Amino acid sequence: MRGEVQDAPSHPASGLRGGIVPAKTGALNGSSPNGHSAANGNATNGAAANGASQASAPTTFYGHDREELTRILIQGLGDLGYQGAANALSRESGFEVETSHAAAFRLAVLEGNWTEAEALVQGTGPESDTPTPGLLLAAGASREEMLFLLRQQKYLELVEKRDIGQALMVLRAELQPLRRNERQLHALSSLIMVQSSDDLRSQARWDGAAGESRKDLLSILSRSISPSAMIPEHRLAELVNKVKENEMACCEYHNTTKWPSLYTDHRCSRDDFPLDLQIELKQHKDEVWVIKFSHDGTRLATASKDQTVKIYEMNQFSVVHTLKEHSAPVAFVAWSPDDTKIITCSQDKSAKLWDTKTGICLQTIHWHSEPVTSAAWAPDGKSYVTGSLDQSRPLTIWDAAGYDLRPLHSFECSGCRVQDVTIATMTPPASSIRSAMPYEYDSVLPVRLVVSCTDRSVHIYDYHRREKISHIQLDHEITCLNLSRDGQEMLINLNCGELWALGVDSGEVIQKYKGQKQSQFVIRGCYGGASEGVVVSGGEDSKICLWHRHSAKMIESIDAHSSGCVNSVAWNMAQPRMWASAGDDHTVRIWANPVPDAIRASRDTESVVWGSANAGSSSSHNAPSIPQWSSTGARGQ
Predict the structure, then answer these.
(1) For the chain, how big is the Rg over CA atoms in Å?
(2) Burial (CB count within 10 angstroms: exposed 0-12, middle 13-18, buried 19+), residue 406
(3) Which among 83, 158, 558, 565 counts the fewest CB atoms within 10 Å?
(4) Could you tell me which of 396, 404, 413, 98 has the C-alpha nearest to residue 230?
(5) Which residue has the higher pLDDT, 24 or 492?
(6) Counting Cβ atoms within 10 Å, is residue 604 exposed (0-12), middle (13-18) or buried (19+)?
């Protein structure tokens, strides 16, 4: 990768704060605290302050609007703490960051002057024929939504002060008449019963009037105000983030947790990408069907047709546990969010919950009358769901801590035979008005349960509400599905030899990845790379294909295993320069760059059985000789 790199910065919504904020006394940005212009006339839409003339300056800068760029620079200088430079640029250019009404609104929100803030919101809108003093709102902005957010903050602060009488008046007389969100109103009303201010802040996911909540609120509200009046908070940082994100998205071999430098164009080298086969793990006695890294990247679980699951410790590639209580092939494994437990699903019609530290079985589920095909954990790790080919009980939720193994919920999906399940928290785009709402109950971070069935359908549920949201019918059989980390996209393997990326909410096909061979067997692909910029899948021809996620270009085709299908691939997201594959040849293969320390240190030890590589990239990337851990030479057995 060319150029310097820095650690990824925090997102503007939670990192940089403030911008140019009017002081309590004196004028700033051409505005006095009461909203009246300190300049010769209001500075609206970037009008020249103090009578400064811009007639001699060109209106564009390398094709960009000069006024827009200058105002963003003024705001950015303030965000960086260079307030004097920001004021100097404002004076010299004649441009101001925001109008007097916007400055007054900023001050009102930050000081908790809710009457003044509401009065400004009630002012001019872009559709008004008779303008009145107030904020110029952005096209499509909802005045009622802004009022709801202001009154919600007012209500929470009253509850925090334990002024319950006034809080109830706000709830009944100000919030309820807006009729914006009945579920939210119900959640807000429940906060009246909290025992302390600390309980309120914890339950509402809100840091209080003395915290950052008012700044967060202003950041959200600024998106509803016309940019000509108030630039959205931290606009320069957001633009820089988008530039970097676009460069990383366009980089075919992007696989670093570092953010690129602004000094040079970004491009990761193929030589740094983990395409080298480093080791074969040969402890299984039959086909290996599925593999999963733990979330912390320190362990790997492998499930096999030989009826066992092995858990490897990745520092030494040693087997720490062999889970062998199933009486038929094991088809699936799922790590708990904290990696302390793992679920195994078997063709013996049972699912088992194990302690990953001791290797002891904690629960055995004998509920389904057909093979259990898959399982997934709730984000909080308190419950999990099992999927089965059992048409009468295809999808069931269980208590992970319960000893009474009665289901928490069994979904009504008559006739479904579940092939795969996955759960993810939906992280809204940064631009969403609700994305920064710390106290938007139930809808800020919805949890989706996505289910694929043998009838070529995908069903999407709200996990907490147990409600079905949507249904997608496809023309091809689905063998595997994965969700992206933000929960916005699903990746599915199809028996037509393609992988598709679909929007979870929209159901629309975002991208198709072609060239992989699959028609008869279950193949499990995945997202890969540090930022999930790669799609990876095995095939029935012993090969592994890698595609650039955003362009769908196949960037590698690897002759990966000695024979049969490559059934499963898994990327180590905690150590993104390592991934693994599993095949019909009874082996699990570890791909990494650079060489893991354990392999480098063991190349002179007797516990490693050396052999010539049977795998290498077909795109002129040959694998080196590799160490092979056999069942007799495995450490930790």
Answers:
(1) 29
(2) exposed
(3) 83
(4) 98
(5) 492
(6) exposed
pLDDT at position 384 over 50: yes
CA–CA gap between residue 411 and residue 407 (Å, rounded) = 10
Lowest mean pLDDT, pick from 124-133, 289-298, 301-310: 124-133
Kindly tell me if the per-residue pLDDT of 634 is higher than 70: no
Q: How far is CA 297 from the centre of its chain?
A: 18
> Six-digit token pair at 634?
């495995």
Residue type at position 270: R
Residue whose entry in the numeric block shows the structure tokens 């400064």: 52
CB 239 within 8 A of CB 76: no
The alpha carbon torsion through 170, 176, 178, 184 (nearest 10 deg) reads 100
Q: Please enumerate in sequence order all residues whose Cβ is within 8 A of that of 173, keeping only pairs 6 or more positions apart, or say none.
A: none
Work out whether the CA dihedral 574, 576, 577, 579 comes out positive or negative.
positive
Strands (E), 395-518: 395-399, 409-410, 418-425, 447-453, 457-462, 467-473, 478-483, 489-494, 498-503, 509-514
CA 588-589-594 angle, 5° bins: 145
| Contact present, 259 and 6 (Cβ < 8 Å) | yes
Cβ partners under 8 Å of residue 386, min gap 6:
343, 345, 351, 365, 367, 368, 372, 374, 375, 395, 396, 398, 421
Q: Round to whole Å and give the CA distance between 363 and 361.
A: 6
**Please, what's the largest Cα pairwise distance for the chain?**
87
Residue type, 112: G
The DSSP call for residue 138 is P
Residue 1's pLDDT band (cuts 50, 70, 90) = very low
Contact of 281 with 590, CB cutoff 8 Å: yes
Q: State which amino acid sits at residue 139.
A: A
Q: CA 250, 251, 257 angle in degrees (round to 5)?
A: 115
Percent of the chain with pLDDT over 70: 81
Contacts of 159 (CB under 8 A, 6+ apart): 167, 191, 192, 194, 200
- For residue 449, the model assigns a pLDDT of 96
Question: Residue 615's pLDDT is what?
Answer: 41
User: Which amino acid belongs to residue 595?
Assistant: V
Q: What is the pLDDT of residue 56?
A: 65
pLDDT of 17 higher than 90: no
Q: Residue 11: which of 426, 427, 430, 429 has the closest Cα?
A: 430
How big is the CA angle at 493 (ends 489 and 499), to the nearest 5 degrees?
70
* Cβ–Cβ < 8 Å for 351, 331: no
* Residue-range domain boundaries for the chain: 273-630
We find that the CATH architecture of domain 273-630 is: 7 Propeller (2.130)
Q: What is the pLDDT of residues 199-210, one digit of tens each?
A: 998 888 899 999
Confidence check: pLDDT of 431 > 80? no
Q: Is the predicted pLDDT of residue 560 greater than 90, yes or no?
A: yes
CA-CA distance, 606 to 324, in Å (whole number)?
A: 28
Residues linked to residue 263 through DSSP beta bridges, in sequence order: none
Is 59 in contact with 65 (CB distance < 8 Å)? yes
Task: Give the model's confidence band at 129: pLDDT under 50 very low, under 70 low, under 90 confident, else very high.
Answer: low
Matching residue, tokens 């709200």:
462
73-127 tens-digit pLDDT: 999 999 999 999 999 999 999 999 888 899 999 999 999 999 999 999 987 444 4
Among the listed residues 108, 116, 103, the one whose alpha carbon sits nearest the alpha carbon of residue 43:
103
pLDDT at 181: 73
Q: How many CB atoms lie within 10 A of CB 3?
A: 12
Q: Which residues are registered as beta bridge partners of 535?
A: 527, 547
